[in-house]
């Protein structure tokens, strides 16, 4: 699937992560930009977590910007999933 | 050579001399002293009725005949508002003085201006109990010519008495002083309370300048610093930013995490066997540590406990507890907010003490040795109960040793309060980046996920379990936290020693290596 809208999820609070999604053309591939207060300690981990969620949701073409303030893995997963679903226009409930 | 904690300590450091490795908390005491050289007081004489007043600070400094390689000392009672230290360094630089040893009782955010003077080699050595901000970063990157020495508050007094720090010039700010140099921080527009850290400088420095923005009619009372130690007196327009020197009252944190940790810590104290009439107590001034005082206050009232004394690091919160009769006295080496100054001045049970009396390991009556309970913070702790309060998660210098190791060694119960992780970084490590306080003197680590009791205190662990406190093995806690956060990748530190952590007895407990590319 390919994101259609700009979307975001998360906050800039400590222990949270802000995830921004920008639609890109088909075949553009994944571009993931990460900044984090714990880059030094968890860069690979954050990247892998984001890629895993994108794999699960079958998103191949996307520009994802993540600004992390030390979110735990479940938080990262939830924020990425919410942002992606918003960008696909398939969110349910009050979002 | 290795010290008792397995840290490789250089035997000799160019510019600082021979080093002794840490052997254990009390190992240095032989008989009734820590054997060491003992300096004598500088003899000074003045003819009758000569004036000590100088036109300005530069004039006063010139009269002290500054020279290359000299040691200049300060106190840090003006905290983040200090304007005197930077002014002095600027004047000395203008005069072309170089190779300076800077020995301030601590360094704060007000001292980032030191960076260019360190980078150009005007300041080549630093002794301090704390180094923060940009200054900490550039020292971590190896920009200071000789390794910085981090001492404790009590250790600094010992450093001066044994000649490790040899003050040639001490520029001591006061919020009120008279023409002879009787000086205090207890009143005046820039009042900051106790002057406890400055006493040792005044007594042993070759040249003492009192700087004040508030020259009062003779005599200045109380005389926290006395005239017979003071060479020169300078009246200046400002000693710093009064709003950052001391303001208002200290508030208790509203952070649910800190409050939860503090509540557990107060329960630990209540069931430690020390919670009874005559208890003595010290808390830090921030976060969870101060919040323990809030719960202890409630618990003391509920159980009608009357304590003996508080020491510190005094906040208005402590003053309130004194005024409520929960404690008999406060011994005050450093006051943290404006409300405290009034109490120091007016309440005879609020006693200003020198840092020598507070925590010097080489005297026969340090207050820290009479302490029942102390509550302290931590940047990191490890499975051996060692505590780091000086370096951050990348190994960079960004904190203060302060009275941490002094109080932990003396107290019957030393309680560390800290969250189990901060912003995904686990606080419990296999080994802390830098040991400031050895696990030997740490009894309990309180986190929101459970209380770890030092295995050397099995009776305490049993008592806490019986009282329903969640006692966990520190190794299990570490595993639990690591499973949540993931195990952080550790950045490799460089080979260069950029700072030494001196234990209160003068031995070296740890070394700090350089960090490359701090952003």
Question: What can you see in these coordinates?
Answer:
The complex is a heterodimer of chains A (95) and B (519). Chain A has helices at residues 39-56, 73-88; strands at 7-9, 17-22, 30-36, 62-68. Chain A has 95 residues and is an alpha+beta fold. Chain A has a four-stranded mixed β-sheet. In chain A, β1 (7-9) and β2 (17-22) form a beta hairpin. In chain A, α1 crosses α2. The radius of gyration of chain A is 12 Å and the shape is globular. Chain B has 519 residues and is of the alpha/beta class. In chain B, the strands form eight sheets. A ten-stranded mixed β-sheet of chain B has the order 3-13-12-9-4-5-6-8-28-29. Chain B has a five-stranded mixed β-sheet with strand order 14-18-22-26-27, sandwiched between helices. A three-stranded parallel β-sheet of chain B has the order 15-16-17, covered by helices on one side. In chain B, β15 (309-314), α10 (316-323) and β16 form a beta-alpha-beta unit. The model of chain B has no long low-confidence stretch (mean pLDDT 96).
């Amino acid at each position: 699937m390919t994101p259609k809208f700009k979307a975001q999820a998360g906050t800039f609070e400590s222990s949270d992560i802000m995830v921004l999604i920008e639609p890109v053309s088909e075949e553009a591939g994944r571009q993931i930009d990460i900044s984090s207060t714990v880059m030094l300690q968890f860069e690979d981990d954050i990247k892998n977590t984001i890629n895993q969620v994108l794999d699960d949701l079958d998103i191949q073409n996307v520009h994802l910007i993540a600004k992390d303030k030390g979110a735990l893995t479940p938080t990262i997963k939830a924020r990425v999933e919410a942002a992606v679903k918003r960008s696909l226009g398939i969110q349910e409930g009050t979002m | 050579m290795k010290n008792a904690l397995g840290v490789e300590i250089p035997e000799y450091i160019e510019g600082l001399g021979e080093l002794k490795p840490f052997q254990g908390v009390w190992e240095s005491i032989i008989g009734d002293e820590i054997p060491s050289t003992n300096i004598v007081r500088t003899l000074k004489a003045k003819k009758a009725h000569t004036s000590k007043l100088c036109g300005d600070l530069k004039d006063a400094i010139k009269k002290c005949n500054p020279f290359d390689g000299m040691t200049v000392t300060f106190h840090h009672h003006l905290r983040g508002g200090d304007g005197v230290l930077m002014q002095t360094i600027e004047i000395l630089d203008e005069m072309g003085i170089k190779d300076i040893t800077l020995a301030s009782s601590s360094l704060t955010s007000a001292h980032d201006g030191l960076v260019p003077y360190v980078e150009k080699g005007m300041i080549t050595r630093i002794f301090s109990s704390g180094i923060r901000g940009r200054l900490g970063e550039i020292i971590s990157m190896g920009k200071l010519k000789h390794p910085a020495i981090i001492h404790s508050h009590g250790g600094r007094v010992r450093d001066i008495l044994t000649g490790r720090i040899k003050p040639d010039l001490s520029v001591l700010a006061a919020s009120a002083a008279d023409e002879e140099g009787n000086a205090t921080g207890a009143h005046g527009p820039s009042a900051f309370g106790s002057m406890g850290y400055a006493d040792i400088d005044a007594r042993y420095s070759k040249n003492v300048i009192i700087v004040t923005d508030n020259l009062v009619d003779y005599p200045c009372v109380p005389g926290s610093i006395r005239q017979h130690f003071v060479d020169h007196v300078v009246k200046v327009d400002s000693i710093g930013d009064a709003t950052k020197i001391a303001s208002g009252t200290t508030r208790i944190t509203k952070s649910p995490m800190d409050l939860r940790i503090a509540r557990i810590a107060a329960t630990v104290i209540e069931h430690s066997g020390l919670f009874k009439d005559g208890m003595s107590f010290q808390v830090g001034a921030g976060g969870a540590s101060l919040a323990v005082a809030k719960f202890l206050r409630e618990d003391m009232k509920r159980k009608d406990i009357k304590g003996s004394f508080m020491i510190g690091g005094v906040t208005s919160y402590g003053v309130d507890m004194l005024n409520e009769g929960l404690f008999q006295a406060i011994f005050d080496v450093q006051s943290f907010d404006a409300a405290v100054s009034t109490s120091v001045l007016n309440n005879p049970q609020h006693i200003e003490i020198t840092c020598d009396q507070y925590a010097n390991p080489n005297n026969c009556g340090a207050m820290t040795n009479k302490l029942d309970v102390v509550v302290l913070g931590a940047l990191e702790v490890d499975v051996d109960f060692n505590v780091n309060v000086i370096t951050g998660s990348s190994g960079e210098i960004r904190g203060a040793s302060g009275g941490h190791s002094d109080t932990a060694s003396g107290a019957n119960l030393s309680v560390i309060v800290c969250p189990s992780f901060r912003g995904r970084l686990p606080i419990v490590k296999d080994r802390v980046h830098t040991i400031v306080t050895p696990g030997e003197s740490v009894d309990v680590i309180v986190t929101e996920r459970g209380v770890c009791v030092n295995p050397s205190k099995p009776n305490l662990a049993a008592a806490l379990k019986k009282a329903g406190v969640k006692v966990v093995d520190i190794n299990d806690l570490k595993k639990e936290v690591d499973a949540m956060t993931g195990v952080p990748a550790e950045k490799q530190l460089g080979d260069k020693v950029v700072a030494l952590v001196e234990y209160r007895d003068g031995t070296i407990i740890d070394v700090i290596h350089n960090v490359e590319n701090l952003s």
